[in-house]
């Protein structure tokens, strides 16, 4: 496997390697912060009806409760990762945690729609530097030959668990306490992270004052925001809407302009030499496809449980517990296997398993019994997701120097965000299109919905198989 090592010049000194007297405890705290970031992208889904009734938000504004978080998060990830490389991973991580706590408190105290949407945007903007800085700290705490596979196993499990827990906690907290609890829960957990990290991790030394690539930062932020917004608008207005096409075109133009700026910059925000590392390139492609399959899966699965099977919000959340347990068990058992077999083969097998589980789920009858028809495929999906998250992340950061650890982490998170937005748009459009075609006059509405959701599961399986082919290409290389 080709690797790239970028040597930092005096003007571009990399942040110091993180040191800790208890690195496994430090990893636990870092993973806890990552859990909050992933959780907040999904926990609001089930709470939206209650939230809308409490604040008087109509359907269109409710979708922006999710979009207001996703857009700044996805758009600022690359800048956040590079800021962490330049000004200190611990320092940038703590700043992101502080902003996330403050925004969560503001969201829980919201008395109207604009206040909540502002808080959600600040949450996303704070998560953008937090997430890549946390992963970069993990890479420094655990060198490649010293426990990184096991550490990434824990990290991948937490990332997958956050997506599942969002459905479960969203239903339980909303039903038992109220919608504000889904935001307030971040505050005590965030304060634990804020207090523990300065004790557990060594302090950042003074960083370089090298010029920040301002125009590069502006163009990539606006370009990624435009692409994520375009995919998000598909759910509202369709793929061929002038709004969707306009946003997509603007995103492509801005990212093209960003490429030109970076190639000419003496101090680029993104050093394209990192893509000479095949593991980084292929790993990010796989992470993009996994993000598309996972985000679309959980969105459609929640609708399937409620609209077809008639489950309430809390029961819908509880049905995700077997999937989460399978993911956790896989994450604990997989690192020794991956250390022997390698990340790419483990990734390929995990993705094939994920695809098998999704196809099995798609074949469930309309009046499915959970234990008989859904428990088996959800357990297989959980195991496949656990392996895919861990091995995909490890592949995407293989051979990256400490000077570019924040950049590599930002790339992984950006790929997952863009993939999630794209996958949700494609799979939900696929589901609604087939539902509409099956919903002829006199047809059973529940049967039509079930058919649409099955099509979405098959689409997610297709994304998983495509990612498995890329992983197989990485094995060959």
TrEMBL record:
This is Major facilitator superfamily (MFS) profile domain-containing protein. It comes from Devosia insulae DS-56. GO terms for cellular component: plasma membrane. Its main location: membrane. InterPro entries: EmrB-like, MFS, MFS_dom, MFS_trans_sf. The keyword Transcription regulation does not apply. Pfam families: MFS_1. GO terms for molecular function: transmembrane transporter activity. Residues 26-477 form the Major facilitator superfamily (MFS) profile domain. The chain crosses the membrane at residues 24-49, 61-80, 92-111, 117-139, 151-173, 179-202, 214-233, 239-261, 282-301, 313-334, 346-368, 374-397, 418-435, 455-475. It comes from the Bacteria.
């Amino acid at each position: 496997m080709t690797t790239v090592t970028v040597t930092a010049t005096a003007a571009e000194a990399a942040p110091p390697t993180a040191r800790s007297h208890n690195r496994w405890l430090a990893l636990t705290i870092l993973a806890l912060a990552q859990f909050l970031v992933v959780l907040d992208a999904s926990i609001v889904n089930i709470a939206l009806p209650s939230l809308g009734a409490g604040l008087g938000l109509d359907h269109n504004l409710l979708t922006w409760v999710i979009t207001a978080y996703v857009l700044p998060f996805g758009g600022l990830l690359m800048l956040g990762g590079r800021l962490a490389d330049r000004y200190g991973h611990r320092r940038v991580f703590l700043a992101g945690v502080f902003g996330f706590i403050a925004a969560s408190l503001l969201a829980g105290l919201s008395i109207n729609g604009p206040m909540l949407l502002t808080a959600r945007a600040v949450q996303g903007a704070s998560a953008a530097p937090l997430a890549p800085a946390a992963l970069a700290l993990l890479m420094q705490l655990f060198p490649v030959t010293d426990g990184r596979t096991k550490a990434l196993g824990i990290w991948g499990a937490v990332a997958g668990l956050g997506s599942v827990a969002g459905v479960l906690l969203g239903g339980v907290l909303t039903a038992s306490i109220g919608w504000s609890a889904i935001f307030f829960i971040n505050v005590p957990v965030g304060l634990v992270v804020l207090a523990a990290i300065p004790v557990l991790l060594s302090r950042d030394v003074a960083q370089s004052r090298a010029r920040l690539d301002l125009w590069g930062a502006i163009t990539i932020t606006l370009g990624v925001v435009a692409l994520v917004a375009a995919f998000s608008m598909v759910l509202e207005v369709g793929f061929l809407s002038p709004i969707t096409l306009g946003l997509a075109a603007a995103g492509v133009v801005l990212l093209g302009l960003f490429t030109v700026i970076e190639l000419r910059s003496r101090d680029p925000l993104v050093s394209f030499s990192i893509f000479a590392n095949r593991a980084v390139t292929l790993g990010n492609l796989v992470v993009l496809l996994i993000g598309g399959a996972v985000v679309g899966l959980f969105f459609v699965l929640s609708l399937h449980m409620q609209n077809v099977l008639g489950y309430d919000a809390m029961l819908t959340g509880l049905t995700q517990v077997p999937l989460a347990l399978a993911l956790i068990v896989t994450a604990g058992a997989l690192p020794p296997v991956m250390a022997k077999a390698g990340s790419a083969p483990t990734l390929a097998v995990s993705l094939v398993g994920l695809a098998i589980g999704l196809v099995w789920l798609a074949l469930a009858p309309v009046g499915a019994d959970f234990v008989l028809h859904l428990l088996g495929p959800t357990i297989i999906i959980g195991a496949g997701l656990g392996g895919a998250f861990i091995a995909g992340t490890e592949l995407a950061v293989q051979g990256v120097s400490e000077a570019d650890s924040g950049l590599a982490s930002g790339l992984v998170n950006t790929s997952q965000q863009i993939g999630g937005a794209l996958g949700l748009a494609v799979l939900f459009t696929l589901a609604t299109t087939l539902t509409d075609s099956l919903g002829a006059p006199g047809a059973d509405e529940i049967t039509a919905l079930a058919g649409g959701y099955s099509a979405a599961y098959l689409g997610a399986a297709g994304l998983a198989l495509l990612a498995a082919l890329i992983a197989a290409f990485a094995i060959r290389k």
